Amino acid sequence: MGAKPFKMVDPQNPLEPGQEFGGEFLRVKNLNVPEAIAIVAQQQRITQIVIGESQRSFWQRLLKGSFTEKLMKLIGKKRIDLHIIATEN
Questions:
Q1: pTM (2 decimals)?
Q2: Which of 24, 32, 56, 80 is within CB 3.0–4.6 Å of 75 for a Cys-Cys bond?
Q3: At CB < 8 A and 24+ separation, what contacts does 53-60 make?
């Protein structure tokens, strides 16, 4: 069975892509988003996470931190692969 083509998320139906590939939509309340993703990934035994990330300047990363770097630190030793898709600003 071949891989299905990439599909952009429809803002009117953000649940559709996950369901299309047999996934499940989870809503979690946590102000620390990288931590919430890491906790759910471990609880659900998730092995692959795909996120989009736009380019940010050095100063933006320095002042606000990097979401991706925070998430990588949290899942780094848990055998979870992180796939980063570059997006436009």
A1: 0.69
A2: 80
A3: 53/84, 53/85, 53/86, 53/87, 54/86, 54/87, 54/88, 54/89, 55/86, 55/89
